[in-house]
Amino acid sequence: MNIFEKCESNVRSYCRNFPTIFHRAKGSIVYDESGQEYIDFFAGAGALNYGHNHDYIKNQIISYLNADGISHGLDMYTSAKEKFLAKFNETVLTAKQLDYRIQFCGPTGTNAVEAALKLARKVKKNPGIFSFMGAYHGMTLGSLAITANKGIKAGTIGTLNNVTFMPYPYGFMESFDTIKYIDSVLNDVNSGIEKPAAIIFETVQAEGGVIVAPIEWMQRLRKLCDEHDILLICDDIQVGCGRTGAFFSFERAGIVPDMVILSKSISGYGLPMSLLLIKPELDIWEPGEHNGTFRGNQLAFIGATAALEYRESSSLELDVKEKELFLKEFLNQEIAAISENIIIRGIGMIWGIDVQNFGGKNFAKSITSRCFELGLIVETAGRNDTVIKILPPLVIDMFTLQKGCLILKQAFKDCLQ
Ligand code: PMP
């Protein structure tokens, strides 16, 4: 039985992209069953900012298990939850002078997106949501409705109504004033578009092809929401928890969204956890109105607390800055130099190599396949999968980061021969 037959006989997996059986992982390296090493530039699509099996986080989880800590607490208050809340309040919210209430949601990102949509509708008594072209928010019916990709929605036969997609400042929209456009649509009785309860946005459209929102654009978006009395929701699932440098990706614009969604790396260890931060005046849920069996995984609380402790004691944010400079320089000098049709975009430790207009239809996929053969795991994103998305763990050491980048360069060379 070959690897494809073995992996896809009764499950769906990523085996077509990465034809091997992965077995263990440490830091930024993943090993397959035969012991072959792969540098990880995928990091669980942003769930592994602290790398695989981070020593400090892992040891905290092991100690908790050894002490017979509560394994599942439903919605009960537990010491693991209490500790997480104390640490999160102290090192994130209070430290940044942010006033949010915390709603634990189901295990995964899309659950918190659903909670945000439900709450926005309840607060504003309005079902309308504006999302953006290129947006990705998840796979359940509500989050899928605000995801812009028509391809992945095609088989669903309809999602939520009342969703309108607005232009995001990317590529061909760069010279178009999208905020002015939204403002005029809202002011024009003849636009046919009703005022929504909320606007949901990503500061970097990651799945959308690493499109970075300009700071001024985010500030104007906040102002627009204030002027029209619309809630602003930031989906920080993929680029939150330090990916862009600061803990929250919107910090660089100095704005405060009304709701913020976190998941992926919040648990520090790839454990399922998602939460919604809500401005206190919006917290109008009745007790039990939004619940769920796996709302708040106890091991994830332990991992998340340990991750915050690690952040506090390390120079993670400064290190991200240094690695950002390296990535920016390397990608511009070594990859963009190949052709003016290759576009590099990114911030912090999320970068995209856009080959939409270079190398032919499946070029990005050929690069990721060749990278895999050479020992690097990297994925594609964006329109028709034409962007190579670079997303290493934040804790990757400089040597491994450079090694991974050299593999990328080699893959370009090999694919262009
Ligand atoms: N929003 C964003 C920005 C994401 O990147 C993702 C996952 N790629 C989601 C929502 C959905 O999260 P999950 O897959 O955990 O449901």
Describe this protein with a few key phrases.
binds 4'-deoxy-4'-aminopyridoxal-5'-phosphate; single chain; Aspartate Aminotransferase, domain 1; 13 helices; PyrdxlP-dep_Trfase_major; Aspartate Aminotransferase, domain 2; 417 residues; EC 2.6.1.76; seven-stranded mixed sheet; 2 domains; transferase; four-stranded mixed sheet
Characterize this entry briefly:
It comes from Calothrix anomala FACHB-343. 37% of the residues lie in helices and 16% in strands.
Commentary on this structure:
With 417 residues, this protein is of the alpha/beta class. The protein has two domains: 3-54 and 315-415, Aspartate Aminotransferase, domain 1 (Alpha-Beta Complex); 69-313, Type I PLP-dependent aspartate aminotransferase-like (Major domain) (Aspartate Aminotransferase, domain 2), CATH 3.40.640.10. The protein contains 13 helices and 17 strands. The strands form four sheets. Strands 4-12-11-10-7-5-6 form a seven-stranded mixed beta sheet, with helices on both faces. Strands 1-2-3-15 form a four-stranded mixed beta sheet. Helix 3 (55-66) packs antiparallel against helix 10 (298-313), helix 4 packs parallel to helix 10 and helix 12 packs across helix 13 (398-415). The radius of gyration is 21 Å and the shape is globular. The mean pLDDT is 95. 4'-deoxy-4'-aminopyridoxal-5'-phosphate is lined by residues 45, 108-110, 113, 136-138, 202, 206-207, 235, 237-238, 263.
